[in-house]
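Journal club prep — side note

Before the paper discussion, L.F. wants everyone to see what a predicted structure for a comparable chain looks like in token form. Sequence:
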Amino acid sequence: QVQLVESGGGLVQAGGSLRLSCAASGRTFGSYAMGWFRQAPGKEREFVAAISRSGGITGYSDSVKGRFTISRDNAKNTVTLQMNSLEPEDTAIYYCAARDTGNSESYYSASGRYRYWGQGTQVTVPS
């Protein structure tokens, strides 16, 4: 069982930056692939970024590539999403997700591949 708690959301002007963090419980964080997803009002949840269990492989949606950076610290059981050059279209609730991958060094962009989810943190970028 893994519990995930997101933090760092808020209101930021267009062009600004935010840093989201996800703290995970449990002693096997290093075996989990992690992902960030977001859901805007009236829209389906969408993939944002993901990272393999060691942090060696990352993936991004086209909409955030070059602006967002995902990273992790396995010693601190945390995964971070650094968001730069924020746009009004980035307004959404951001969710952290985890999947036990054992020894596989992979990341996953499909929400259905993740078993554990946080409660989400709101990011608002006014237009």
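L.F.'s comment for the group: The mean pLDDT is 96. Keep this in mind when we get to the figures.
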